[in-house]
Design a protein that fits this description.
0% strand; mainly alpha
Length: 84
């Protein structure tokens, strides 16, 4: 989990993460994919909500633009920095 969080906070720099943890590129790739898949499987249904149809997308796009003035978007992800 620590390797994956470090990799994700580092904007996806494989080599820097590998060097800091002393692991190979294939090991980082497998680990990151497995941890992300597990997070999505276990926590995804509760925390990741996507529109179910085109009408919901259009409604969200309209509300997002009216509220934030940002066109053609129906949501965003938090870019909170996670200190490791």
């Amino acid at each position: 989990v620590a390797i994956t969080l470090y990799y994700l906070k580092d904007q996806g720099h494989y080599r820097m993460t590998c060097n800091n943890f002393g692991i190979s590129l294939p090991c980082l790739s497998r680990t990151t994919k497995a941890v992300c898949a597990t997070i999505i499987l276990v926590m995804g249904p509760e925390y990741l909500k996507l529109p179910k149809n085109v009408d919901e997308i259009k409604d969200l796009i309209s509300r997002f633009e009216n509220r934030f003035g940002f066109p053609q978007a129906f949501g965003c992800l938090d870019g909170t920095y996670i200190p490791i």
